[in-house]
Amino acid sequence: MLEQRIQQHFIDSADLKYQAAPVLGKPIADAVQALLTCVTGGGKVLVCGNGGSAADAQHFAAEFVGRFERERPELAAIALTTDSSVMTAIANDYGFDVIFSRQVRALGQAGDVLLAISTSGNSANVLKAIEAAHEREMVVIGLSGRDGGKMTPALRDTDVHICVPHERTARIQEVHLLTLHCLCDAVDTLLLGDLENPI
């Protein structure tokens, strides 16, 4: 019984990825172009999210600053979820809803990208970070799920919305992680040329 349940998780995850591939291919490609324009222009990527999405933010920043699968020059990325002193000071003095937006205003500049992650699309602090990014004339790449939530109307035509068409948080997060890997792989491919080890 338990093994069947476990196997069903694998099946459900794989099914969603197959279904999402044709839907998400274009927005992911658009996001890659935004990231490439940013990093080749000397910009940086700021990344935010809560809970599992905070872990995804850190994962992406690690792949950018360190490396993904091939050696390459460092790419500038900062996970806004990692400085506990900054986050708790802002949350204590101003409120949890602005823990990311104040960092975006402090660190973000025109030409930078905000990668905003929220499985529901309704995280108040992520939405405020999007507003702050727009104030700084940054492009926003939004990762969400379900129907996109409040993130959908918060994004501009110049932004990119990658919305996973599923209701379950775990499945959305699994596709978000795959999306982040796609972004890293594609940026590396465009910067370095064809993969040494093709898929």
Task: Describe it.
This protein is α/β, with parallel strands linked by helices and 199 residues long. The protein has helices at 2-40, 52-65, 84-93, 101-107, 124-135, 151-154, 169-192, and strands at 45-48, 77-79, 113-117, 139-145, 160-164. It has a 5-stranded parallel sheet, sandwiched between helices. Strand 4 (139-145), helix 6 and strand 5 form a beta-alpha-beta unit. Helix 1 runs parallel beside helix 7 (169-192) and helix 4 runs parallel beside helix 5. The mean pLDDT is 96.
Count of alpha and pi helical runs: 7
Number of strands: 5
| Termini gap | 35 Å
Note the main sheet.
Answer: 5 strands, parallel
Order of helices and strands: HEHEHHEHEHEH
Strand order of the largest sheet: 2-1-3-4-5
Quick recap of the structure?
The protein has 199 residues and is of the alpha/beta class. It contains seven helices and five strands.
Question: Which labels suit this protein?
Answer:
199 residues; alpha/beta; five-stranded parallel β-sheet; globular
How would you summarize the topology of this molecule?
Layout: H1 2-40, E1 45-48, H2 52-65, E2 77-79, H3 84-93, H4 101-107, E3 113-117, H5 124-135, E4 139-145, H6 151-154, E5 160-164, H7 169-192
Parallel strand pairs: 1-2, 1-3, 3-4, 4-5
Helix pairs in contact: 1-7, 2-7, 4-5
